[in-house]
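Protein modeling request. Please complete all fields; requests missing the sequence field cannot be processed.
Requester role: graduate student
Desired output: 3D structure, token encoding
Chains: 1
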Amino acid sequence: MIAFFPKDKEVPRELTFDKIKIRQLLSTDNDLDYQAAIDSGFRSEGFPKEVNLEQIAKHEMDHNNKIEFAFTILDKDETVCYGCLFVKPISPFLKFAFFNERMCDHLELKDNDPAISFWITPSGWQQGLFSKILRELIKWFKKEWPYEKLYYLGMRPSKEEIQEIEQVYLQEIFLLKLEEEQYILWQLFDLEE
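Delivered output (193 residues):
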């Protein structure tokens, strides 16, 4: 099996643009991350802060071991968290999430093809951050990451999220509807094209 990220390469550290900094999510970010998760509705009121810390610590360990990557989306001064970004090997994730080993057979996905997903707070949406982040991520991955393809996974995407993604003109390659929920996979780029 091919490793998700080359062992001899360093993971890109951060992306900065406008007044935004995207860097590795660390355990020391728990307070900011927790507040952003509550504000966004990603976590419900009363969700234990200690459990949030445990999840961040797991993300940090996976990131350091190059299994998958978790980044925090901050203002440049690191006083406000606008959300989180995740980079995962898409094929194993889909197979695991849907308990189906043949889930990706018709999609021609490699085990180490990456998919990103991210969420942002309402204040981030008000500032128009979603499409800015998406456009900057595409540039960052083309320039600094060792992948030929990149996908965006929308897990229960909102109408606003779908509209923003369509404005960037991404190719939808996969749609799975489960009752009221939908999962959409868009191809962001293919360097071989």
